[in-house]
Design goal:
- The structure is a single chain.
- Helix 2 packs antiparallel against helix 3 and helix 6 runs antiparallel to helix 7.
- Helices cover 47% and strands 16% of the residues.
Length: 365
């Protein structure tokens, strides 16, 4: 921050390894109290929690409950590695986005309202894109979640994705009953499952995603893919909650695959069953989900995604590299597990032998 004066207590962004994270300025300068960045080279900062801050409502993808991070000590960094936040990070929500969001929540079918809603969603996504390109996955996640939340508006006649026996299923909304709100699960919704035509009643909070109508730019899929990228990056930064972030990445990519398949079926384009052709977003989703499964040591799932990529004629090379990488990691994990098992066996045998010797030399009266 050249030529800028840092204020103690202000929020900035600084390099944290290969990434960037938000931090609070603790102290500036040396013992002489000099707070001018043009004369001092270092600043003490306190890292903000890695867990993203919701801009509105509840998260759809980010883990709902995590272990609290251990309080960070102050760290001293070079002033040149410290950056100001983007202007939009200090002014939420703006008039335009607040108005567009209110319009989106009103449920109006007006064409102008739909355009305003789409523009608002695209704006939130673009802000997330800026932060992700900068390397701040935590801050980017907040904006992607806001964009996804605005795009996921439940309406009668619309389509939603719910979990049925652990699998994402498309359902049509028949009725929304606000009168059954019990204070715990929100409104109840009557739906019809598309794959089985079974009718069900679900709580609004049980909906994984409400499918955006007239999404010609595939905004929802692109937002979900970037959320998956953020979850993978956050899993590297927050070791205590690594599995939860990886599972969130699996959820985001699985929703992309479900959404992409739904869109393809709506187009009703004749397809050659002999060829496995995947939409571009589906390929990216498989790559990201494969990485998440691999990091979770779910080798069967990771190998399945990699093989599916190999079968698709578009990106076979990447699929083969991914498949080879997963198989290599699986072998390494297997060797590590066997080595650990042998060490445990030796410890048990050693402890057992020591107990037997102790019993033999202990006098009995």
């Amino acid at each position: 921050m050249r030529g800028e004066k840092l204020v103690v207590g202000s929020i900035v962004r600084a390099k944290r390894g290969s990434k960037r994270c938000r931090a609070m300025v603790a102290t500036v300068g040396g013992d002489d109290g000099d707070r001018d960045c043009t004369r001092t080279r270092t600043v003490c900062i306190l890292w903000e929690p890695i867990y993203p801050h919701p801009l509105y409502g509840r998260f759809l993808i980010v883990p709902k409950s995590i272990r609290r991070e251990i309080e960070q000590d102050e760290v001293t960094v070079d002033v040149e590695t410290v950056e100001e936040l983007f202007p939009f990070e200090n002014n939420e929500p703006t008039t335009d986005t607040a108005t567009a969001t209110a319009t989106a929540r009103s449920g109006s079918d007006n064409e102008a309202s739909a355009t305003a809603t789409s523009s608002s969603i695209a704006l939130w996504k673009e802000r997330g894109d800026q932060l992700l390109r900068l390397g701040d996955a935590s801050a980017a996640t907040s904006y992607y979640e806001k964009a996804l939340s605005d795009s996921s508006s439940v309406s009668i006649g619309g389509s939603i994705i719910i979990s049925v026996e652990g699998f994402p299923r498309i359902a049509e909304v028949d009725c929304v009953d606000d009168g059954n709100d019990d204070g715990n699960g929100g409104s109840t919704i009557d739906v019809t499952l598309v794959h089985s035509e079974e009718e069900r009643t679900v709580k609004e909070t049980a909906i994984l995603l409400s499918i955006m109508q007239k999404d010609t730019d595939n905004l929802q899929e692109r937002i979900l893919l970037n959320l998956a990228r953020c979850m993978l990056q956050l899993s590297e930064l927050d070791a205590a909650n690594r599995p939860k972030y990886l599972k969130a990445a699996v959820l985001a990519t699985t929703l992309v695959l479900t959404l992409s398949s739904f869109r393809e079926e709506q187009k009703q384009i004749p397809r050659d069953d002999s060829a496995v052709v995947l939409p571009a977003n589906s390929e990216t989703a498989l790559v990201l989900r494969c990485k998440a499964y691999s990091s979770l040591s779910k080798w069967k799932n990771a190998l399945s995604d990699a093989r599916q990529l190999v079968k698709s004629g578009i990106n076979q090379e990447q699929g083969k590299k991914l498949l080879a990488g997963v198989e290599r990691k699986k072998k390494m994990q297997s060797k590590t597990d066997k080595k650990l098992a042998k060490q445990i066996c030796r410890l048990v045998e050693s402890a057992t032998a020591a107990n037997e010797i102790s019993a033999e030399i202990t006098p009995r009266y």
